[in-house]
Design brief:
This protein is an all-alpha fold. It contains 14 helices and no strands. The chain has one domain: Growth Hormone, Chain: A (Up-down Bundle). About 75% of the residues lie in helices and about 0% in strands. α10 runs parallel beside α12. The protein is globular and about 60 Å long. The N terminus is likely disordered.
């Protein structure tokens, strides 16, 4: 395989890998949005309509605790994996298969706690494959082309978030079919990924002795020694605190704030996702291209955060479907811009070391997405309890978090 560095791919291999990453992240994000945004809320509401908000918050919290732990650990273990298939491929293949089996099992569950057990198993498996795929961007692509790669992968991720909502919204009445479709797609794509993009063997790499105390200590990355990493982590954390607060309750917002019926809200959330899809794909691809063209990352992440905050103002000012359509379009532009460049920025603030710990460090950065999934739904449920079910409180707090994310980008010095 031709390379411009120890493992940097070029030519046909580069295009094949970046398209494969885009497809796999598209399907993985589609699964997350479809299952967490539509299928599970519907399933939970059907089991206990009176406690649906609290039960959904509990599910998000439990899931995210396990996801937060599994992601950096899986990333660190992939750094140490030695096999003829490479370091990352085994985690991608096994995670996709095991996760999909557990996900299909969710469709068969008839109690809240059995549903949680199966979904947590699926989430842990999928979160084990995700850092392995993300680390390939740092492993296999040169830094000066990561903006374009990030834009393509980010477009796939953001498009997947929207497409998953569309598919789940239209198939909400056929849960087994919907779960099965998502599970099969990710399983097939995960296996195809490792077969089409053969990773160099890591069998001959020196084995790294595991000192468990040192291994665990490695997950702490000092903000004093690595301030840019800390600011990037905080930026991701705050923007997802705001974004998840609204996204997790979007179906209930349509039902309880906009006053749509159950069937009408499922169709509305799917149609809104189509609007978001068009806006975010265009925004992601254009932002990634421009970022590489001018070799700037920070302005795009900052502006994307500000646009997302403005999108959340629309339902506050217009508590109707007009406000929600505006939200759907503007959030697509902002989130597409943020997410596409955020990936490139994260790979460039990793601590510089010679130990090959990129998987671990990117896993730590991924917890900045997972932790808000624990806190944000609980925060939103608490706000609804305190305000008597007033969803405006969620929007107001979410706006503050998203605007705060833009401020956290400013102190980063190692990335322009």
């Amino acid at each position: 395989m031709a390379a411009t560095g120890p493992a940097y791919v070029v030519g046909a291999a580069r295009w094949r890998l970046q398209i494969s990453l885009m497809v796999n992240f598209f399907l993985l994000m589609a699964l997350y949005s479809g299952v967490l945004g539509v299928l599970l809320p519907n399933q939970i509401a059907a089991l206990d309509a009176g406690n649906k908000a609290n039960n959904l918050a509990l599910l998000f919290a439990i899931t995210s605790i396990f996801s937060t732990l599994s992601t950096p650990i899986a990333g660190a273990l992939s750094d140490r994996t030695r096999s003829r298939w490479g370091r990352r491929a085994p985690w991608i293949a096994i995670g996709s298969l095991f996760g999909s089996l557990a996900l299909f099992g969710v469709s068969l569950m008839t109690s809240f706690w059995s549903l949680i057990v199966l979904w947590v198993m699926a989430a842990v498996a999928y979160n084990a494959m995700q850092p392995a795929m993300m680390t390939l961007i740092a492993d296999r692509f040169a830094p000066d082309v990561r903006g374009g790669i990030s834009g393509i992968v980010g477009a796939g991720m953001t498009a997947g978030l929207t497409a998953g909502t569309v598919v789940a919204g239209y198939l909400a009445g056929q849960a087994m079919l919907a779960y099965g479709l998502f599970a099969a797609a990710v399983a097939v794509s995960g296996l195809a990924f490792v077969l089409v993009n053969r990773e160099p063997s890591s069998a001959a790499m020196p084995a790294r002795p595991t000192n468990w105390r040192q291994f665990l200590r490695g997950f702490w990355i000092s903000p004093r020694e690595h301030p840019d990493f800390a600011w990037a982590f905080l930026s991701r954390f705050t923007i997802y605190m705001g974004y998840q607060a609204v996204a997790a309750y979007l179906l209930y917002i349509l039902r309880d704030y906009i006053r749509l019926g159950d069937a009408e809200s499922n169709i509305a959330i799917a149609n809104m996702a189509i609007v978001t899809l068009v806006c975010l794909v265009a925004s992601s691809l254009l932002s990634g291209w421009l970022s590489d063209r001018i070799q700037r990352r920070k302005p795009f992440v900052i502006v994307g955060s500000l646009i997302m905050g403005c999108a959340m103002l629309a339902p506050l000012l217009l508590p109707s479907m007009t406000g929600m359509w505006t939200y759907a379009a503007v959030i697509g532009v902002g989130y597409g811009m943020f997410m596409s460049i955020d990936i490139a920025l994260m790979t460039q603030v990793l601590p510089q070391n010679t130990d090959g710990d990129a998987g671990r460090d990117l896993g730590v950065l991924t917890t900045a997405v997972n932790i808000p999934q624990i806190i944000s739904p609980v925060m939103a449920a608490t706000l609804l309890g305190v305000t008597g079910g007033d969803y405006r409180a969620i929007f107001m707090v979410a706006i503050m978090f998203v605007f705060g994310s833009a401020l956290c980008i400013l102190p980063i010095k190692s990335v322009r």
